[in-house]
Fold this protein.
Amino acid sequence: MRNLEFAHIWVLLGVPIVLSLLYFRYYLRVRQYSSFVPFSSFQLIPNSQKQHLNFLLKLLPVGYMVGLSLFLVALARPQKHESKIHKNVEGIDIMITLDISDSMLIEDMKPLNRLEAAKQTIIDFVKGREHDRIGIVIFAGEAFTLVPLTLDYDLIQNRVAELTTAKDARIKDGTALGVALANAAARLKDSTAKTRVIIFLTDGENNSGTIDPETGLEIAKGYGLRIYSIGLGRSGPTRIPIYSKDVFGNKVKHYQPFVSTVNEPLLKRMADETGGKFFSAYDEKVLHQVFEEINRLEKSKIEVHHYTKIDELYMYPLRYGLMLLFLTLFVDFILLRRFPVW
Amino acid sequence: MSQNAVSVEILRKIRHIEIAIRKKVNQIFQGEYRASFKGQGMAFADFREYVPGDDVRRISWIVSARTGKTYVKQFEEERELSVVVLLDVSGSMNFGTGFMTKKDVAVYLGATLAMSAIKNRDLVGLLLFSETTDYWLPPKKGRNQLMRLIRDMVVISGRGRQTRLSAALTFLNKVLKKKSLIFIISDLIAMGEYQNDLSHLTRKHELNVFLVEDGMERELGKQMGWIGLQDLETQDVRWVQFSDYELKKKYASHVEHQKGEAIKVFRSYGVDVVRVPVGPDWDRVLMQFFKKRRA
């Protein structure tokens, strides 16, 4: 055992003393048989004698020696010093709100499209955090919680990795910023964490949903949530891939012209009014940098306490010493009651 | 063994023994002894010229006719026996569970026999043996010899020594020229090999064996648990469980077997073995012994 110390180590000096006393008592006395009962000749005694007694008798002094030594060891107060670093971690709660509308399929980000880039970045971000509870809300025409606040990062990563767009997920298409915001806020409202953050990723404008983005923002503000808003992709004309099946059932992809617009003023206001920050991520590298910056900005507070825990271990040698001593006494004076007492 | 250093205590003991046995010897054993061990009567010794007053029946007519003078046969009384007490003083003889040890009884026996012989004007000698012949007192007559013999028996102890009967028997074979009466007093425990010497000795001398045995040498005592025993001969120690019923049974048969073997050996050479239990009854056994001999 490491870190084993004795508070009164000098007591252990008694061990050799006890051992030598018992040694004198038993082993040196063996040569004096004066107290043995004289008998004419052992040739008279049949040789069927059980030998266990002689063996046990030799063991008895060992029992006393070990038992008493254990007492002394207990008396020396063995202690286990455990220097502990206690981290008092104040984790933060992060809700990542991800747009999965069809416009996320626009292929102006690597590896494939905006969605894939966002997924990859979120996964990396999650990997980089510790002690923080993270949840995911996805939204298109409506919003729902993919993963509630949790420390199970593996779960988050798995769920994020299998994300698809609204169409595939059979969610109403559109972009309901207000609902998403409200949903994320609802998830955070009961949290007791000191810092509660929403990371809001979108590439569009509010065009559906029952809750106005303004209302959502008010809710978030009301709960004191900080919003980091990220506008994905470049605004302007672009093309959107459409996946459909041809007459043979094969999946084919063709493009439609599309005008991507990010409601930057709204996102910017969301961030400013809650003390967060707005980022415009027009490609995957910038997106990555954005998340790195958020990661930097939202550091969880860690208090470190160093202290030494002392475990008193005397009860173990005491217990076994006592057991051994009683056992030895039992064998000595009851089981092997004998004359002369030897 | 120093012969001068005899303490008052030992003198007292010797005196005690003498007094204890004297009455018995005077009243019983002297006569019993005389009757039991008759000598050969008269043995021819020599021829001598007749002088007036000689018994005419003792004239040897054959010799007288041949020489022309009158000769008488001269006889020697062969009644004068030579008795040797062969006493075992090995360690095991110091064992006794009662008031007496085997040695005590052996000394009483030896002293009684010796006194009976002395009173009968026989020669008495003593040989003490254990691993070797420890002490040899050649046969002599007289009260001094008796007292000395008793003292030697009391004083000399072979405590802690083993038994080798053959050594004693060999020694007697060498030393005793005349036909002698030998009393072996021993416990016959762990005697070693002695058959050869015994057969030699029995050819010329008459042997009698007194087997002294303690009660515990018949059977183990009460249930006493574990007892540490020390062999009086080899000084070894051993723990014996006296409460072991199996052992008890085995012990009795084992002991009996050993003694039976020894007795068988002696009987095969025509030597009578008398078993003498340790205790105050030893004289009764001696009495029976004499009676049996006379019969």
